[in-house]
Amino acid sequence: LDYRFIYDKVNDGAGLRKIGRDLHASCASVINRIHRLARNAVLINQQIVDLLPLREDLVLDGLQNFCVSQYFPDNYTIAVGKRSQFVYECDYATMRRTGRMTPEQKKRRAEIEKVFRPPNNAISKSFSRTLDVARGKSESRRFPLILYTDEKTDYQRALWRYSKNRRMMFSGQWRHHMTNSKVGRNTRNPLFAVNYIDREIRKDMASQARETVQFPRNVSNAMLRMNLYLFDHNVRKPYRIRMSTEESRRSHAQMAGLDHESLMRITRGFFTRRFFRSPGGSLSESARMTLSGEWVTPLKESGENFPSYLAA
């Protein structure tokens, strides 16, 4: 099967069955190839993040959808470079369904929660895991790292409840800037970088479009596909398409500080070979859970199957 064709189609919003029909292949075969590419993407993204000096501030926010059922809303916590719009990290959290519900829906939720109930602090933990990418790089900065978020209390709770984050705040290495989520989503908004990523994901990923019938049924698979899309955004998509300047044609990874030669060396063989964790290379907690299939899918009884070579 043509890996490049599958890669382009899945990042252009095509569904799995549509790709299978175009290739005259089963849906399982398409999923297998997507997961191979996605595992490569996770490892390459980690190598790039390790090399980047983090010369910019971070914008963080959550993209919400649902997995398995609308009784299990989810939240993709994304950390984006404010200037480069490079995605440094993406984490996941399953939330409890809230908001307006009919009596029948409340009864159904109570029955489901006897089997599986998401933790109340899932977003705070996800936000804290996302900040791990910034913790090690903050010490080498001459100026404080500013974290831009909206006014969600879960983010404030994560910064001051967990000791490793609280230490960075008290030392002055981190500063927190909050923006009301009702402010216009234009380039003057401090949260523009993450709002832009959210818009691109909604537009390009079939499983993340609003009111979609192609919603994820498995959290680990959803995180693999999300990492594959973010790899495409970081490495292949130009920083600006309509601008004619030389800088605008550079990828987001290059705008974040990675030189062209290093980028080509790291991504060489993406479609033709399997990547492995490099000796001494680091893996974020989110990347490790994605590679090993440790994300918990609501109501799923058995664990995930993953290649044995990833267990090393």
- What integer value in Å does the Rg equal? 19 Å
The mean pLDDT is 89
Spatial sequence of strands, sheet with the most strands: 3-2-1-4-5
N-to-C SSE string, H for helix and E for strand: HHHEEEHHHEHHEHHHHH
Estimated structural class: alpha/beta
Number of contiguous helices: 13
User: What's the overall geometry?
Assistant: globular
Number of strands: 5
Strand portion: 5-15%
Show unreliable segments: none
Largest sheet: 5 strands, mixed
Q: Would you give an account of this structure?
A:
The chain is α/β, with parallel strands linked by helices and 312 residues long. 44% of the residues lie in helices and 13% in strands. It is built from 13 helices and five strands. Strands 3-2-1-4-5 form a five-stranded mixed β-sheet, with helices on both faces. Strand 2 (69-81) and strand 3 form a beta hairpin. It is globular and about 55 Å long. The mean pLDDT is 89.
